[in-house]
Amino acid sequence: MKKKISFLVISMALLMQFPVTVFAWGVQGHQMVVNLAFSMLSPAAKQKVLNALGGEPLNNAAIWMDSVRENRVPQFQYMNDWHFLNMNENQTYREVASEEDVVFNLQKAINSVSTIQQLSADSIKMDVLILFHLMGDIAQPLHCGYGIDIGGNKILVHTQKFNISNNNLHHVWDDIIIREGKINLTSCLSFYKSMSSIAIDSVKAGNPLDWMTQSRSFLKNNVYAFTLVPKGISQLSLQYLDANVPIVKQQLVYAAVRLAAVLEKAFGA
Q1: How many C-beta atoms surround the C-beta of residue 133 within 10 A?
Q2: CA angle 133, 137, 138 (to 5 degrees)
Q3: How many Cα atoms within 13 Å fall on the side-chain side of residue 125?
Q4: Comparing C-alpha atoms, which of 35, 80, 39, 81 is closest to residue 62?
Q5: How does pLDDT run along the chain (269 residues), one tens digit per residue?
Q6: What is the 3-state secondary structure (H, E, C) of the chain?
Q7: CA dist., res. 122 & res. 27, Å (int)
Q8: Which terminal Cβ of the chain has fewer Cβ within 10 Å, N or C?
């Protein structure tokens, strides 16, 4: 039923003005992931992906899932919880696993696109849109964060240096570190080119459950490496923000490497 939704509706949603409030990496982060991944594809795969998108620009496709979520497009509200996973420190994925979480739905899209010869054009386009977005989401540590604070959304933070006032920790990782750390497509491409072939193969390996675990490895010693003020506003130092710029850059590149590998396997032949 959901796979048969007209892509006329999807195209209209893509043309909506993207709101100021964004999710997961923000607009810039998601677009970097998709554009970097696209640059890694073979010419044949690039053309097939563009054909699958039916003329939609890569930058629009990268943020489609956030756009329909934020604009409350009725046909796509069933995807609202696909962007994240909330799992406390002492829990296992088996305890919290859901058909609504990012791990399940990213794996579902990977499985689906692997049967591309059996899919309709609309189904292929939907799978690409989902892959574009959720591969970025799962690489953001707080999209695989603790349920107790809803992935950092309940933790208020402040720092004068970066003009963050009464904001939340999740937004810092989604957007602020990218913007203030001057992370862009050029710096991400440079990071990618510095990786060895062995490192790239290691990043490609595994599945969404492995990638979620890798993202969560930064929670305790990096994401939460500040003095938490319970029921108050925690102060983030310049050192905290500077130290996490390389991690955010790495996670964006890792998302792109994994996305490119999935797309090449599906469309490159």
Answers
A1: 31
A2: 120
A3: 26
A4: 35
A5: 344 444 434 444 443 443 333 345 789 999 999 999 999 999 999 999 999 999 999 999 999 999 999 999 999 999 999 999 999 999 999 999 999 999 999 999 999 999 999 999 999 999 999 999 999 999 999 999 999 999 999 999 987 766 666 689 999 999 999 998 999 999 999 999 999 999 999 999 999 999 999 999 999 999 999 999 988 999 999 999 999 999 999 999 999 999 999 999 999 97
A6: CHHHCCHHHHHHHHCCCCCCCCCCCHHHHHHHHHHHHHHHCCHHHHHHHHHHHCCCCHHHHHCHHHHHHHCCCHHHHHHHHHHCCCCCCCCCHHHHCCCCCHHHHHHHHHHHHCCHHHCCHHHHHHHHHHHHHHHHHCCCHHHHCCHHHCCCCCCEEEECCCCEEEEEHHHHHHHHHHHHCCCCHHHHHHHHHHCCHHHHHHHHCCCHHHHHHHHHCCHHHHHCCCCCCCCCEEECCHHHHHHHHHHHHHHHHHHHHHHHHHHHHHHCC
A7: 24
A8: N
Which residue's structure tokens are 């193969």? Answer: 201
Q: Which residues contact 174 (CB under 8 A, 6 or more apart)?
A: 22, 23, 24, 25, 26, 29, 140, 142
Provide the terminal-to-terminal Cα distance of the chain, rounded to the nearest Å: 29
Measured between alpha carbons, how far is 244 from 240 in angstroms, rounded to an integer? Answer: 6
